[in-house]
Amino acid sequence: AKKEGRGTYRFFEVAMSEEVRERRMIEHDLRLAIEKGEMAIAYQPQTRIGTQEITGFEALLRWNHPVRGDMSPAVFIPIAEESGIILRIGEWVLREACREASSWDRPLKIAVNVSALQVNNPTFVTLVQAILDESGLAPERLELEITESVLIRDPERALQTLTQLKAIGVSIAMDDFGTGYSSLSNLRNFPFDKIKIDRSFVRAIDVNIQAAAIVRAVLGLGRGLGLPVIAEGVETNGELAFLNAEGCREAQGYLFGQPAPIEMFRSVTHAEAVA
Ligand code: C2E
Ligand code: CA
Ligand code: CA
Ligand code: CA
């Protein structure tokens, strides 16, 4: 029995070290990914329910790894965050997205995800201002999507940062709403401009009465607080009909468009040539 136990322990140790090695490899490759041109941004439309007009795009990072191929941000973003590499990668995304949006004929919004480490970095507001200046993008067109993890470590500092960002004209959306653990007080204590309902609730609307109830409650909350609500991950007409009936005015999801290179949306971002 003793022998077996030790064998099991050793196997576990090997498995662990393999996982650690894997992370180190990804971390190593991440450091070079931007210079090697392996990173790209996919844009996903945000649509006004009712008129179906596109109001803006969310920038979503894509990494084409030389050996592994396309790697999900759900895999590499956490590694970039833990290693601090997200500071450089996040800056690159912000700069690229703002530059791209500034080239459009239409003043559509550009929503960019930013990590806790970025927002809590003392130079973040200065960086955002510099990127706005160099791109010439109107600050009102930039929306930063942040999760509640931004607010946890140093709430006072986070409040100061968000207040400064609002002062320069940038808007702030609370991302992944409903998946955190103190959303309600955060909505009251921090200057959010928008609530983004997480996909996990939206996708279950038509099969799960609890999810439908939560979505309905969030929409009511938004109305009560005077905050617009956008639903993420809308895939079916049934989900859309429910959202519309419950007063949701904006949506994003495969039903309207998958994240894609911006060229795919040229008829949206650029006005038709006038004859
Ligand atoms: P998120 O911010 O919640 O982004 C929404 C995710 O849902 C995206 O996954 C998007 O492609 C996916 N999605 C949108 N509509 C649908 C739909 O109708 N059905 C389904 N099944 N999925 C849908 P993605 O692109 O894999 O990104 C995953 C996460 O990685 C994001 O979640 C965000 O947290 C993070 N991320 C992506 N880009 C960046 C970035 O530039 N910076 C940071 N800090 N995080 C990023
Ligand atoms: Ca997001
Ligand atoms: Ca989400
Ligand atoms: Ca569904």
From TrEMBL:
GO cellular component terms, A-Z: membrane
Lineage: superkingdom: Bacteria
GO molecular function, one term: catalytic activity
Domain named EAL: residues: 23-273
Keywords per UniProt: Membrane, Transmembrane, Transmembrane helix
Identification of the protein by name: PAS domain S-box-containing protein/diguanylate cyclase (GGDEF)-like protein
Protein species of origin: Microvirga subterranea
Upper taxonomic lineage: Bacteria, Pseudomonadati, Pseudomonadota, Alphaproteobacteria, Hyphomicrobiales
